[in-house]
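sorry for the late reply, my laptop died twice this morning and i had to redo everyting from scratch. anyway the thing you sent over, i finally got around to it. pasting the sequence first so we're on the same page, its 335 residues, then the predicted structure underneath. double check i copied it right bc i was rushing
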Amino acid sequence: MSNQLEHKFAIKSVSRASDTDYLKALKIYVETTPFEIRTKSNEISYWLENSTGRTDFQVYAFVLYLNGEVIGFSMTTYINRTKIVIDEYLAVLENYRNQTIFLVYESLIESFYSENGIEISYYITEISNKGSGTEIDRESQIALKILCLKEYGKIEALYYALPLGIDNHESNFQAYLYIKEGTGQSKSLNKDTYLNIIYSMYYDYWYNWYTPFLESAQFEEYKITIDKCWTSIKESFLNEISPLPIVYSNCSQIDNGAQVSMKPIPIKRQKKSRIWWMVVPTIIIMPIVLLFLYSKALDILDISLTTTNNNLLGTLITATIPALITFIIAKKSDS
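ok and here's the structure:
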């Protein structure tokens, strides 16, 4: 019976797309993230290696480990001008879609920013509002539950998720921004602050993101889409003077259509090593073999067993037996 169980959670920030564990994690992301909200993996890899040192935004990708094994991928983006972190993706293998796992990794990523002294104004994430919230994807359903537990609030204002390129038409939809301030919960947000955040996301980030991937005509088409969404949002505030309310949900009342598991985290039991079954007999037999070989060598050299030789044999045996006892005791302690 096991009387000690443990899990080791870890994240690793990666900066090279050739990193072996990054490639494993990226594969998990591709296989578990719905197409309508999935950024192309080659684009992520490109910016992973080319956003460092930029003045507009920087991509941070993380490999998620559980007990030393890669189980997921996460990506966040830091926008320098407004100092916001966009929490973009957190994808894990199907059998690890556990509420505790999501919360732990979210906390570790926040700790990464804190430990590296990166100044943050807000954490931001998009949640689909397709069909007034009735047609949202499974990942967004998961995110709603986790965001609630992490004390994110919904900004009650118009927002559009921009299309992921020019060929993913399902990715352009009405959404809500969920926000978390580093110092605690805010009940409202000034409309100018909200517009500044959106402008930063649209033009500091997404506008620049697609520059390397689209031809000139395609890029102009994409910019028209950005401008249209931005104008629509800005015009919705023409007569608005009051601060925008930030709504915090009752987590227990959130419909968990994604069926995030509340069960214990899967344990991958370590197989006990059986090597000691070979080691112990070897330790027992070795002195006998050495004694036999030693005697044969003396016979060949025509040397008799003197007191000195006997003492040498005694030393060999007395050194071996305690080693054997220590080894057995150590094995029992480990079990």
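The first strand starts at residue 9 and ends at 14.
thats about all i looked at so far, will dig more tmrw
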